[in-house]
Amino acid sequence: MWEITIVIYTTVADGRNQAFRPAGIAFPKWFARGPRGLRCSAGQGRRGDREVAVTASGTPYASEPEVRTAAGVLRGGREAGLAVFRGIPYAEPPVGALRFAAPRPVRGWDGVRPALAYGPPPPQSSLLGGPQDTAGDDWLTVNVWTPEPHPAAGLPVMVWIPGGGYVSGNAGLPEYDAGHLAASGIVVVTLNYRLGIEGFALIDGAPANRGLLDQVAALQWVRDNIRAFGGDPGRVTVFGESAGGGSVAALLAMPRAAALFRRAVAQSVPGTFFSPELAADVAAACAAELGVRPTVSGLSAVDPARLPAIGDAISAKITRWRERWGQITHRPIPFAPVVDGDVLPATPWQALADGAARDVELLVGHTRDEHRLFSLIDGVLGQVTHEQTETALRMLAPGPDGARRYREAFPAADDEELYELVNADWLFRMPSLRLADAQVAGGGRAHLYELTWPAPGLGGALGACHGLDVPLVFGNLSSGQPAMLIGDPPSPAAEELSARIRTAWTAFAAHGDPGWPPYDAERRLAQLFDTPSTVTAYPEEASRLLWRDHAFAALPLLAP
């Protein structure tokens, strides 16, 4: 195999040489900008001169792995002994005639396609720090880390779904680099999917839950192609955190996802799933903000890059709709999976209790202090008022007398502790616990965990907060935004805990046993990840009793 390099450079005022892309040369949109794509090298020339060099190199890509997929040949790179392939399209860009449509299979290509750079993230909210200046519309891509890109390797596969409140998410973030996980003998895949209005708004003329359909398409790509990367398509584990954990829960309930994975890890599952009526009302509010109708034809006229700002605008004034939208105005949560009766026939809790995932092994859990990070973001950490606590208890606690029962269940808790507890229980802790209950009730197997290790970063103020599990699972303790929770430098305790969690996750993916007994309704055993870690009865008993009769149903539209 030979390399043909087009080198174009010009000398600028300070004598340096810089590359440029001249008009009239149409490079494919996937043409690499990496070390073997468009590049410049030192050259000679007077100021203002231009030189074009076309060279043919006889150096083969002997050290660069190549894999043949159903769509064509990919060339990746080597990193720390792993073969890594980035920016692989699993579906056609969902723009133009495909806007708001179900994902379509990617078209094939001729020759060898470089897979060295992450694909562009989908348009997304700026509220959680998502990227706003993205080039290209190949949003639907996957990335693969593999120890052995050979069809005979037969390694377990883990497929990561990023979180971000269904409005943000980018598999190219440094915290999701899968080098540490893959080094243990696992093929790891990370993916992007449509978000916000593009992915989850209920739009007339479009299928519901397009973001979930993207995830199904990515899993179908894994089924059809992962053997070439050294993976076993019969041993696929899907895993995700926050909205990624909610997506995993949804996939467990979706007929379209049946048989695409054997195991699932759901980290901090949010309990917010929308009824069609609520989702349609939110979509109508978004469309009204734009002055269009909530239809495919109306919204297709709007540039995709504009839509996240509309979702952010609705979030900023979401309390206007409190009498109609209810609980989602408290957090705020304008988008979530929709229980539409087709793509998602039932909530995950109902579907699993009915046996929909009894053949899928489940690992599920949450952090102890799930809401504390959001209190920091909201500016109320350490400053929660009695009125704020009363509002949270009134809106979120289960049952008509939920506020009273919370105060009775936690008699020593002050207002801030109650505020944290009811928010954490409603949004993440109890939905995660109840998913384990539903799986067992439906005849399936589940393992339960809780992360109780207090994060030392940021002065230790956040405890075992939401998102702390991400750097621990991936082992990226000093890179990526969540690493700030770990502390700099990472302590030996953090390194040890991360290794223990990675071992549990990869062992579960390999053979279904994370290292502690399955959960059942009698003993309710859970792994508590801490230093040291222990196996004990699920510790949040007071909260469990408060929520044991609550049905996590699709959230309704409160007023017509």
Summarize model confidence as the mean pLDDT: 89
* Unreliable residue runs: 1-62
Across the major sheet, the strand order is 6-7-9-11-10-12-13-14-15-16-17
Strand content: 15-25%
> What characterizes the major β-sheet?
11 strands, mixed
- Derived structural class: alpha/beta
| Rg over C-alpha atoms, rounded to the nearest angstrom | 24 Å
Helix percent reads 25-40%
- Separation, N- and C-terminal Cα atoms: 65 Å
Number of strands: 17
Put simply, the count of helices is 16
The shape, in one word, is: globular
Write the layout of secondary structure elements.
Layout: E1 3-11, E2 17-19, E3 50-57, E4 66-68, E5 73-75, E6 77-79, E7 82-89, E8 112-114, E9 141-146, E10 155-161, H1 179-182, E11 187-191, H2 196-200, H3 210-225, E12 231-241, H4 243-253, E13 263-267, H5 276-290, H6 296-300, H7 307-316, H8 322-325, H9 348-353, E14 361-367, H10 372-378, H11 386-396, H12 402-409, H13 415-441, E15 446-451, H14 469-474, H15 492-511, E16 525-529, E17 534-537, H16 541-547
Parallel strand pairs: 5-8, 10-11, 10-12, 12-13, 13-14, 14-15, 15-16
Antiparallel strand pairs: 1-2, 1-3, 4-5, 6-7, 7-9, 9-11, 16-17
Family: Belongs to the type-B carboxylesterase/lipase family.
EC number: 3.1.1.-
Keywords: Hydrolase
Describe this structure in words.
With 560 residues, this protein is α/β, with parallel strands linked by helices. Helices cover 29% and strands 17% of the residues. It has an 11-stranded mixed sheet with strand order 6-7-9-11-10-12-13-14-15-16-17, sandwiched between helices. Strands 2-1-3 form a 3-stranded antiparallel sheet, with no helix packed on it. Strand 1 and strand 2 form a beta hairpin. The longest helix is centred in the C-terminal third of the chain and has 27 residues. The N terminus is likely disordered.
